[in-house]
Specification:
By secondary structure, the protein is of the alpha+beta class. The protein has helices at 2-47, 108-113, 148-157, 159-164, 217-223, 225-265, 270-280, 283-300, and strands spanning 52-56, 77-81, 83-84, 87-88, 95-105, 116-124, 128-129, 136-141, 170-182, 189-196, 205-213. The protein is built from eight helices and eleven strands. InterPro entries: Seipin.
Length: 301
Amino acid sequence: MLQIQMAVSVAISWARQRILQCFVVFSVTFLLLWIAAFLYGSFYFSYMPKATYSTPVHYYYRTSCESPGSVMCSYPVANVSLMKNKKHVLTFGQAYRLSLHLEMPESPINQELGMFMVRATCFSQGAQIASSLSASSSHFGMLRYRSDLVRNLETLLLLPAFLTGTAEQKQVLEVELFSEYTDDPYSPSDTAMIEILSNKVQIYSSQLLVHAHFSGLRYLLFNFPLISAVVGVSSNFIFLSVLFVFSYMRQMLKLKQIPEELTVNGPPPVGEGAQRGECDGGSTDQFGRVYAQQTWPLLLE
């Protein structure tokens, strides 16, 4: 009966020990995975710039004319901020494509206007032109040609939609301002001035679109986010696991060296311990003397 009780107690102790070990391993693994994911997320959001950015463009005319008879003395001009939440939208060293989307009616004036130029200039702080080599550019735009027959057929087919207002006779024109614009870190751009070099152009609305051209590591992180996340988190987890194993082995070696030192050197003399106890108050050396007297016979056995 006693043997059965001992066997049951040993089995329970073994089960508790295994459960505790599994819990410790699971906790350490979960903690390392969480730290690895946190490190990868911090790196991703600090290294990857915003891929796209859009902002509305509102035009105005300068009316401070010298001639009193003229109302508008300038082309349509708009100042667009390249700042968001007091931070620069453009990341230093990253190439961007800037394009202007114009929503224009298919009016006779716009049809007769033909080609018109759009000029864009980037300015840094203090209304100074950015020192980048591509800080200013000019590109043309025009409505796509549609014959009278095509417009009449479209009007007949979409007449109910035109009457209810669900459809409009308009075109969305895209004008590329910069194909690869790279901001200067010493003179970052915070404002873009867009000017349409035509007084007769008619516009419903306009938007400035900024697209980032990723290359290298940023290209892989943006186009393959899942694979990059798995590789990044796995690499961090392996590195942290190796560090944890080395640290654990070092602590275990330190604990094993304590009995070996006691075995080689032997217990400290009682007289020296008493003298040290008298000098230091006796508390620390007395505890060490008692511990050595109790453990030394066990080690010798």
